[in-house]
Design a protein that fits this description.
The protein is α/β, with parallel strands linked by helices. It folds into 3 domains: 39 residues, no CATH class; 189 residues, Vaccinia Virus protein VP39 (Rossmann fold, 3-Layer(aba) Sandwich), CATH 3.40.50; 38 residues, no CATH class. 35% of the residues lie in helices and 20% in strands. The protein is built from 10 helices and 12 strands. Strands 3-2-1-4-5-7-6 form a 7-stranded mixed beta sheet. Strands 8, 9, 10, 11 and 12 form a 5-stranded antiparallel beta sheet that branches.
Length: 299
């Protein structure tokens, strides 16, 4: 993963530059890299929560959360993971409206900065106990079939070229349902398709699901769209009940997929020898965060 000066990125953001497009051009890449996505969202960290200060924006988010809560209530999850949680503005309003909150609420994002805002936002909403951690959609650091419902809201969106890999990971972690609110290229207008292509947005999600053995998901339009050129669809995949069960969701190494154990203010994988730091109380569980410390278990 390439490194950039965060001050330069912030200055570009403040001038209204599209950070993902700027880095993609700098890298000469055809698709958006994890680096581009990370720096883009790190630069805008805090902006989603700040937008809720506007009453109409808050009311829109609240209506969206109320509708999503009704859908999730029908699924009755004991554990819920939002992949690409951002600043938890969607999850916060959703949890407020759920009839019964899941016993285990988890969320991850590439950006640690966004997770810090997410934690504060959830606390301000009176929601405590959510487990937040950094992670990547293509290397989710959670044990297989350990989450009842895995949720994405415009998280797969900027990841064209990685649709199969990301869906495979989301489905691996989900025990019962995968719920996605993502732009649907197949149902988009020609102008919306052109925009999705220019921005490197994901497409072909339904075809990818078919390739992965899920040919008949529930799909319907999503009414809560901020941008008419970025209309989303609601896609629900029913996996049924997996034979692999975990009483509590558990961390695994994003490098090897083996179990992590908590030790000395980090999460450590004895099998692959990597330690993952905890910063400001948030576990950092991306491949890039791993520190090779194979002898840590001896001390």
């Amino acid at each position: 993963m390439n490194k950039y000066d965060a001050r330069e990125i912030r200055a570009l953001f403040d001038r209204g530059e599209n950070i993902i497009e700027w880095i993609r051009a700098s890298e000469g890449a055809g698709n958006n890299s994890p680096t581009a996505i990370l720096y883009s969202y790190d630069a805008q960290a805090g902006s989603y929560v700040a937008q809720l200060a506007d009453r109409s924006t808050w009311e829109f988010a609240d209506r969206c959360g109320q509708h999503l809560a009704g859908l999730l209530d029908q699924l009755s999850p004991e554990s819920l993971l939002e992949a690409g949680i951002g600043e938890a503005t969607s999850l916060g309003s959703t949890l407020r409206h759920m009839s019964v909150r899941p016993a285990h609420v988890l969320g991850f994002d590439l950006s640690l900065s966004r997770l810090l805002f997410a934690r504060k936002h959830l606390t301000d909403e009176g929601i405590t106990g959510a487990l937040l951690f950094t992670g990547a959609l293509d290397r989710i650091p959670i044990a297989s079939a350990s989450i009842d419902v895995v949720l994405t809201i415009h998280a797969i969106e900027p990841n064209h070229g990685y649709e199969d890999l990301i869906l495979q990971e989301l489905l691996r972690v989900a025990r019962r349902h995968l719920v996605m609110i993502e732009p649907c290229y197949e149902n988009a207008t020609s102008d919306a398709r052109a925009r999705m292509e220019r921005l490197g947005y994901a497409r072909g999600l339904l075809d990818a699901l078919r390739r992965l053995g899920y040919p008949a998901p529930r799909i319907e339009g999503w009414s809560f769209n901020v941008n008419p050129l970025n209309e989303a669809a609601l896609i629900i995949v029913d996996k049924g009940e997996s034979g692999i069960r975990h009483t509590n969701p558990s961390f695994v190494s994003p490098i090897s997929g083996r179990d992590l154990i908590f030790r000395d203010h980090c999460w450590f994988c004895p099998d692959d020898g990597h330690a993952f730091p905890i910063i400001a109380g948030i576990p950092c569980l991306t491949v890039e965060s791993g520190v090779l410390a194979s002898k840590l278990g001896q001390f």
